[in-house]
Design brief:
361 residues, disordered N terminus, 6-stranded antiparallel beta sheet, mainly beta, 5% helix, Immunoglobulin-like
């Protein structure tokens, strides 16, 4: 009897302190058209430490610095330049810093996974599209205290290189990447960052990445030659990652030495998600939507043939679609509720001509 009373007292005390174990689900991932700022700390202070594992913890990361910023935009894959390469993706994370990368994800009731990326590999001038098969899992759902998963993913990139290395002209490079991830939710409690204090789950994630590299050179003939021993990579990284309900993405991360646990770097959400924060895309300078704001009708026009016009609400759901095969057309919008929308115009091959915000009032 005393044990039961003691348990009830402790439970009530924790609830009064605002500490409660949470469960993270797919609904805690940001919806399309949401923008965040992620702040990076490249040389964390001695007070920025992962802290303890276990139940009802208090982690204080309020001294994380803001050295540089990543802009994170969650978008409907169909609004992005490479979305047609990933028909099963329902969410795209655009990361903008010194360059832009696109992570095509699938957010479902059981997991959040990356199925492909468009990014700058091996110094490429434009992003290279790669597909991960199997996909790389970022989070298991539902996730709660002591949840864990193991994941294996891989992809291959073949890229024209055209440079001289050590007197040898390298025509093309082929890279095969294999990644193994082990994730374990080892704690729950209150996490404090400069953004605020949140009930959170903490996961410790170990990632082993191995690259094998082949090159093709006219010096050696038409075959691929294995240069893995010279240019290959075998890295192990470890990070502590905190998630909270209703924020949209990872609240904070600390990267540590996988052998000593000494802190290397850290990052945290510097701003809450701004809905409707999708950046506009214009493949053609003469693609236009008018009037904007609109009430009853909009005129879509372009100097390129418009095959289709689709309108999405801020949650990424398509609310209207019309096939045109014209340079311009009037589209009725009087049946749509007032609010913010995304208009996507595509060309004859399904490419984006423009993605623009539209206000209906």
């Amino acid at each position: 009897m005393k044990k039961v009373i003691f348990t009830l007292v402790i439970t009530c005390f924790l609830l009064m302190q605002g500490i409660a174990q949470i469960t993270v689900n797919y609904s805690d991932v940001a919806a399309p058209s949401t923008k965040f700022q992620r702040y990076n700390d490249t040389l964390p202070a001695a007070t920025v430490v992962p802290g303890n594992a276990g139940a009802s913890q208090t982690w204080n990361l309020s001294t994380i610095h803001h050295d540089n910023t990543d802009t994170l935009i969650f978008a409907n894959p169909q609004w992005t330049p490479y979305g047609s390469s990933y028909p099963t993706s329902n969410l795209c994370l655009i990361t903008i810093n010194s360059s832009s990368s696109y992570s095509y994800m699938k957010n479902s009731a059981d997991s959040l996974s990356i199925i492909g990326q468009a990014a700058h590999f091996m110094g490429s001038a434009t992003p290279i599209v790669v597909k991960l098969n199997p996909a790389q899992k970022l989070m298991d759902f539902p996730s709660t205290y002591l949840s864990s998963y193991n994941n294996f993913s891989k992809f291959q990139v073949v890229q024209y290189y055209g440079q001289v290395v050590s007197g040898i002209t390298i025509d093309s490079v082929r890279v095969r990447d294999k990644t193994t991830i082990t994730s374990h939710v080892d704690g729950w409690g209150n996490l404090t960052t400069p953004l605020g204090t949140y009930n959170s789950l903490r996961a410790v994630i170990t990632q082993i990445e191995q690259d094998s590299v082949w090159v093709k050179s006219s010096t050696f003939g038409p075959s691929w030659f294995d240069f893995t021993s010279t240019y290959g990579r075998h890295d192990t990284t470890k990070r502590y990652s905190w998630w909270a309900n209703n924020l949209g993405f990872v609240l904070a991360e600390i990267y540590v030495n996988p052998h000593t646990d000494s802190v290397i770097s850290a990052n945290y959400l510097g701003t809450l998600g701004v809905h409707g924060g999708i950046d506009e895309l214009n493949a053609s300078d003469n693609s236009n939507i008018s009037p904007n704001p609109a009430t009853d009708m909009i005129l879509v026009s372009s100097d390129m043939l418009i095959k289709n016009v689709s309108i999405y609400d801020v949650h990424g759901a398509m609310v209207k679609s019309e096939d045109l095969n014209k340079l311009s057309e009037n589209i009725m919008v009087s049946g749509l509720p007032k609010g913010l929308y995304i208009v996507r115009m595509t060309g004859n091959k399904g490419e984006n001509l423009c993605v623009k915000k539209l206000v209906i009032d």
